[in-house]
Amino acid sequence: MIEIFNHKNLISIKEITKEDINFILDKASKLENVAKSQEVSNSLNGKIVGMMFFEPSTRTKLSFETATKRLGGSCIGIDSTASSSIAKGETIADTAKMFESYSDALIIRHDLEGVSRFISEIVDVPVINAGDGAGQHPTQTLLDLYTMKKEFGHIEDLKVALVGDLKYGRTVHSLSYALGLYNVKMTFVSPSELKMPKENLRDLEKNNIDYVEESNLNKVIDDIDVLYDTRIQKERFPDEEEYNKIKDAYLINKKMLEGKDLIVMHPLPRVNEISHDVDNTKHNRYFEQAYNGVPVRMAILETLISNNQK
User: CA-CA distance, 131 to 138, in Å (whole number)?
Assistant: First the structure.
């Protein structure tokens, strides 16, 4: 019998199976009452989660902290390079080994792709990638899938448009791969400068996953279940002038959604790509999506820390 989610770390969505994903989504559903403070869990009582955040974060960091505390654990951490001894010249490897000695699991966010994997290879506690540069963001993908499953009761065969910054947006890199496991009909909507990277497209093609590329959102908006919008990420552009040319390429407002039967998702933060007049419509799921990070990350933490004790 194959054990489901028998993993020590969570670095990339590509390293887990569809069965693993379903396991986490089902477990998250069972933890909803704990996430909402309607039940109490002490499954992580006495456990300490180390938060190594070298890049700004609101939702990811706070939801991991909330998830840990809802399960009876506690957190230690840093918020930036400046707040750690790395500012004094300490290597990230030494910082990670120090955190390992204090923690039962490490949550890593860094602006360089591959840092989480590097740390996972030098420590013995579970490592969770909370976003690495323009690479992967697997826990975001899992909460995105959880949001869709809660909304529609299934993920299979949904029609999803991934819109905006598909080049630098790590959330869509992970999500597109995972959606392919569920036979989702995907449309990638972006300006030519921000198209989905070729390596991501090759992954989809290698697995016989169909997709369509489009630059005009209006051509597809009438025939989708999910509009997954992303921020044009100024901080990842090497040239600010190029950013200014396309920063307003896709602006979603209430009027353009009238008569449409779809939900709008966004990993947040938004800048101006979704108008605030969408917030009070039936389409808005981005705030619920952010909340869903709590039960999903609870499920991940509980599972990985338990796996490490076997």
Answer: 8
